[in-house]
Specification:
By secondary structure, the protein is of the alpha+beta class. The protein is built from two helices and four strands; from the N terminus they run αβββαβ. It has a four-stranded mixed beta sheet with strand order 1-2-3-4, sandwiched between helices. The longest helix is centred in the N-terminal third of the chain and has 16 residues, at about 15-30.
Amino acid sequence: MNRNRNVLKWSSNETENHINMKFNICKYLKKMGKEFYTEAILVGGKGRADIINADDAVIYEVVQTESKKSLQLKANKYPLEVRFVKANQEFNEKLLQ
């Protein structure tokens, strides 16, 4: 990993909704005592994950404008299970299941 544990990182290119959803996911993971990393660059140039839940080996990708093809490519190349969460909705812990 190339990021700090349990720290939210974001980019100036992300929308407010994208950042807020990442924040809510991280806040929930922290509340549940989970170890997470944000904006982690994956080994071997396989991408940059929005959030990695290290305890459960799950990547959460917050999506807003990506095409279905782009999401499928991410799901195929990322080394862990990927769960997509839409940015433009109210956070609910059920979104992470």
